[in-house]
Design goal:
Elements lengths: L1 H32 L31 H27 L5 H24 L7 H6 L1
Length: 134
């Protein structure tokens, strides 16, 4: 019994050291290999850089709310698909009309949500000027 506990402890220690190594080594490599004097030329140390390209225009811009709406709709429907997967896997074991009715009701509610969002204009892409006009 003691040897099994010792082996388990060795596994835990090995995973801990492996995780610590995977976390620390990239930071040390970036400190050792990173160029030191790239942005100090021309007083550009506070300038935002993306992919080494000089930025054009202001770096702080406002994103439209449409991005967030699409993200929320995607998350909602991906979670709904996650609910449907176990039902589909278990349905062959105990087929019945009640289970089928529940799945059809669930998909029907999702369809109503899509129709409601469509009628409200959530899926139409509007630019900033169209939002200001109303």
């Amino acid at each position: 019994m003691e040897t099994e506990a010792l082996v388990d402890l060795i596994y835990v220690l090995a995973f801990f050291l492996g995780g610590l190594t995977l976390a620390v080594v990239p930071m040390l490599l970036s400190l050792l290999l990173a160029p030191r004097r790239t942005r100090t030329m021309g007083r550009k140390t506070l300038q935002a850089i993306e992919c080494g390209v000089e930025p054009i225009g202001p770096t702080w811009i406002r994103y439209g709310v449409v991005y967030y709406l699409y993200a929320l709709i995607f998350v909602a429907f991906s979670v709904d698909v996650l609910f449907l997967l176990p039902v589909a896997a278990v349905y062959n074991e105990t087929p019945g009309w009640l289970d089928l009715a529940e799945v059809i009701l669930f998909i029907g509610i999702l369809a109503l949500i899509i129709v409601y969002a469509w009628r409200k204009g959530v899926f139409s892409w509007k630019t900033g000027q169209e939002y200001r006009r109303g």
